[in-house]
Structure formats: C-alpha cells, structure tokens
C-alpha cells in the first residue's frame, strides 16, 4: 500500500504542475517502499537524490510562473520552498555522511508537507494562474 495516493482533490488545475506533483508522490512512495523493505543505503540514496533534484526542478517551474505572471504572494511561497529545501538538504547531508536514516517520521513529514502545501499554498496560486489562462 502506498504512503500517499494521488487523487483529483490534489489537482491545482494546471496540467504541468499536476504531472509534477504526481511524480513527487511517486518518488515519496518509492522512498517509503525502499525504507519498508530495507533496501540498501545505495538504493535509498539514489531515490533520495532523485527526490531532491526533482523537487528543485518542480519549485523552479512554479517560481518561473510566479515571476512571469506577477503572482502577488510569490515571496511567501518561495520562502516555503526554500525552507523545505533546507530541511531536505540537511537530512540528505546527514544521510550521505551515514548519520541519518530514512524513518517513518521523515516519510510522514514529506507526505504531510506535500499534501498541506498542495492543498493550501499551491491552490492559492492555482486560482491566480488559472485566471491568467495558465491551465
């Protein structure tokens, strides 16, 4: 059973962003599966790297849209992105140094952050960008 299941309620009604959110859900589930079955550090590290890199790519996509269309809450939203990147990079550094492990608490944090961020912050920009014709 996946940790997180994508459903239409998570849609921000912007196809490119929805596809990216679905990929983030998939990567979180891969990381969770790897943790549950005790995959080796190398495999989990590879998935974690992909999650970190894809998250950065996704945030860049959103932030380019904010800048292009003049999203009024872009500073707050970008700060939220920056805060998550800092937390994840700190964990990744600990993991790479052998000091951190993927735990249920980390998985729940990622799941909760993503779902709360989509359902609150992202849905706020969704309405704004939809009104600008971004679908």
Explain this structure.
The radius of gyration is 15 Å and the shape is globular. By secondary structure, it is mainly alpha-helical. It has one domain (13-127): Four Helix Bundle (Hemerythrin (Met), subunit A), CATH 1.20.120. 76% of the residues lie in helices and 0% in strands.
List keywords for this structure.
single chain; 135 residues; mainly alpha; Four Helix Bundle (Hemerythrin (Met), subunit A)
Helix content: over 70%
> In CATH, what is the class?
Mainly Alpha
Report the strand count: 0
Number of helices: 4
Note the overall shape.
Answer: globular
Report the CATH architecture: Up-down Bundle
Mean pLDDT over the full residue set: 91
Question: Cα-atom Rg, whole angstroms?
Answer: 15 Å
In short:
The protein is mostly helical and 135 residues long.
Please specify the SSE layout and strand pairing.
Layout: H1 15-36, H2 41-69, H3 74-96, H4 104-131
Helix pairs in contact: 1-2, 1-4, 2-3
């Amino acid at each position: 059973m996946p940790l997180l299941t994508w459903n239409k309620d998570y849609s921000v009604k912007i196809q490119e962003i929805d596809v990216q959110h679905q990929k983030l859900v998939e990567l979180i589930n891969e990381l969770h599966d790897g943790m549950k079955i005790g995959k080796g550090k190398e495999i989990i590290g590879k998935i974690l790297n992909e999650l970190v890199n894809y998250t950065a790519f996704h945030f860049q996509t959103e932030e380019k849209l904010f800048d292009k269309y003049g999203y009024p809450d872009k500073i707050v939203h970008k700060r939220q992105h920056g805060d998550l990147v800092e937390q994840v990079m700190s964990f990744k550094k600990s993991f790479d140094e052998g000091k951190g492990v993927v735990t249920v608490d980390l998985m729940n944090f990622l799941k909760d952050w993503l779902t709360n961020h989509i359902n609150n912050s992202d849905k706020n920009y969704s309405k704004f960008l939809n009104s600008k014709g971004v679908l």
